[in-house]
Amino acid sequence: MTWGILDKHAHKEAGSVRTSDIHILLCDFAKLPWIPTAVVAAYNMLGTMQRDSHRPVRLRETKIEARPGTPLLRPMAALATRELPAPTSDQAYCDVSALECGFIEIPLLWVIDTAEEGDKSVLPVLAFLIRHSTNGDVLLFDLGVRKDMENLPTMYHGRINGMGFLTTVPEDAVDALAKGGLAPTDVTTVCYSHLHYDHIGDSRPYTNATFVVGAAARPLVEHGWPEDPKSLFPQDLLPEGRTRFLDNPGMWPPLGPFPHALDVYGDGSLYIVDAPGHMLGHINLLARTSADGGWIFLAGDSAHDRRLLTGEAGIPNHGLLGCAHGDKVATAEHIVRMRALEVEYPRVRVLLAHDVPWYDANKGGLAFWPGTIPSL
Ligand SMILES: [Zn+2]
Ligand SMILES: [Zn+2]
Prior knowledge:
Elements: E1 3-7, E2 25-28, H1 35-46, E3 58-60, H2 75-79, E4 94-107, E5 120-132, E6 138-141, H3 154-162, E7 166-168, H4 173-178, E8 189-191, H5 197-200, E9 210-214, H6 218-222, E10 243-246, E11 261-263, E12 270-274, E13 283-288, E14 295-298, H7 306-310, H8 328-344, E15 348-351, H9 356-362
Parallel strand pairs: 6-8, 8-9, 9-10, 14-15
Antiparallel strand pairs: 1-2, 1-3, 4-5, 4-7, 5-6, 11-12, 12-13, 13-14
Keywords: Hydrolase, Metal-binding, Zinc
Protein name: Metallo-beta-lactamase domain-containing protein
GO molecular function: hydrolase activity; metal ion binding
């Protein structure tokens, strides 16, 4: 197998192609018939390039065999060679329930490059209740939007309006928990995918919980609002003495298609997956949902739209709205891995924090607490 790297700074051998923003793409080029098609395949795979510029691209460090008619997309199998851990004889697992915690109407062009100017989408804001089968831990993955949005850091107000976001919170995480008889004080762990306003909720009622957050986000909070009036991150978000910062994700061992994951309880029931790109410290969760090999992957904001997973759309970098991700290339690379997870692992359900099709199919149903998302 020959792996190649496309580099946006190089040019010549492949000639000009209608692409831009190509950074680092990994393809099995030996399986690709000719170079511009490789670029198209890479486009399909990562979905990160814009279609209307003429930046030249070439391949380097590759041995290319012309094989017209060879299937284009082959790298997924190469990514997904690592099995997920097999269950043990008394395997612990997690019951996962969805919580509806607000809605955000967004300009669709902010999240997918195939949208038309003026297209809007109403995104559900989902949090997840994760209950361990034996140790009694009650974990929340994200808290959604807080109801008292007037108490968000000052800068958010102008920013949300400026982006054209319309946020509504008919029910928040506390309301959603109450539907199944849980109070915030029953929650033992709050794990944040990242610290954007639609994920951090209101941390104050969770007085018995340990908060878990990517260490890379720590300085944002420690020097946050109101000390820094321009900060988007509330200084009082993470309770002192009850916060665990996830250090050195680069040292975590690989898991499935992902290079770095942490076994939360040490029993293979729940993993924190390093998910770089969207924001500093961004993480995903991979929870085992049965004792016989079912899983759910909670992707946070690694993708805001399912079409990024299927390859039907790419990540835009809108002239006015900017990019939805702090590091577009790292996000695109992570999406490739998520796509591998969805395609190559039939017993893994992949859900986004703003998963419109899944929400539309499941709203008000048994997947929402006090119900449980069925294990695959
Ligand atoms: Zn976000
Ligand atoms: Zn979000």
